[in-house]
Amino acid sequence: MPASMQGELQPTIFRFKLGGFEVATILDSKGIREGLSPLYGANASADQVQALARANNIDPNRLEHPNIPTLLNTGKELILFDTGNGFLPRDYEQLKTRMPMGNLAARLALLGHKPEDIDVVVLTHGHPDHIGGLVDGGRPVYPNARYVFGAAEYDFWKKNEGVREARKFNRELFVKICEPLAERSTFIKPGDTVASGVTAVDAFGHAPGLLAFHIESDGKRLMVTADTFTHYVMAVQRPDWYFEMDDDKDKAVATRQRMLDLLASERIFVASFHMPFPAIGWIDKSAAGYRWVPHSYQMNL
Ligand SMILES: [Zn+2]
Question: How far does residue 85's CA lie from ligand 1's centre (Å)?
C-alpha cells in the first residue's frame, strides 16, 4: 500500500531561558525569493555570489526568507520585538504576490499568550515586514501595548526627506500604520533602555535608524540584531557585499562589520529576524572569516 505524503511539518515557536528571563522566537511567515544575485552582492559578481552559495550547500539562485520576531518575558513585562507581515498582503494589492500573510498574533497562542497580554511592542525599524503586524484594519493588534520606536528611524519616515524611490510605498505604509500610534509611543536612541536589562544598540544602515537590542539577565546575554544580517551566509560571510534592501549600503556594511566583531569577540548569542528558524545562534570567527553557527543545546543548560 502506498504511503501518502503528509506535507511539510516544521516548528514555528521556540522558547528558552536567558538568566531570569524567558525568550521566544516565533516564525511569522516565510517566502521564497528568486535571484540571490544581485539581491546580494551588487558590488561583487553573480559568479562570486553563486559560488558562495554552492560552497555553503544552498541553492545559488533562490533563497528562503523567513520573518522571525522575538518575544521577551522579563517576569514583569512581555516585550515583543517587531510584528511581522500581519495582514499587509490582504490589504495591499501590490504586496499580494510579494509577501506571505503574517501568523505572529495567532501563533502567540502556542506560547500561551494572547495579543492582549503584550505590554510593549518594540519596532527595530520601519520596514513593512516589521511594522505590518501592528494593525488589523486600522485597529491595534496588541491593544494594551505601548510602543517603542527608534527616534532617528521614526523621524526619517515622518520627515520624508531622502526616501529612495524603492521605499516610497514603504513611507506611505509607515505613516498610515505608525503615526496613529504615536500617542502611545516613546522614542529612543542607542544606549537607552526599554526595560531593566534591555538596551538599544546603534545598527543604523539597513534602515536609517535601525536598532539592535542587547538583553542581559544574570550574566546571560543575547543580541536581537533585527536586520543587521538578512541572510545567514551572504550577510555574515561577506558583510562587505551590498544588500539591495539596505537603505544606506555603506553604513550597513560598516555596521555589519562592527556588530560581527562584537558578537564574535564577546561570544554573545544572537536572535536574528531573517536567519533560519529558530534564528538563534552565535557568530564564529576563524581565519576564513565570520560564520553563523545555529545554537545546539546552549540554551538548555
Ligand atoms: Zn526585515
Answer: 10
Q: What is the pLDDT of residues 114-154, one digit of tens each?
A: 999 999 999 999 999 999 999 999 999 999 999 999 999 99
pLDDT value of residue 1: 80
Q: How far apart are CA 243 and CA 40, in angstroms?
A: 5
Distance 211 CA to ligand 1 centre (A): 12
Tell me how far apart the alpha carbons of residues 72 and 222 are, in angstroms, rounded to a whole number: 11
What per-residue confidence (pLDDT) applies to 274? 98
Q: At 98, is the pLDDT very low, low, confident or very high (cuts 50, 70, 90)?
A: confident
Q: Say how many Å lie between the CA of residue 249 and the centre of ligand 1.
A: 15
- 169: CA distance to ligand 1 center in Å? 15
Q: pTM of whole model > 0.85?
A: yes
What are the structural domains of the chain? 13-295 (3.60.15.10)
Residue ranges with CB less than 5 Å from ion ligand 1: 129, 227
Place of cell 554552492: 54
Place of cell 497562542: 109
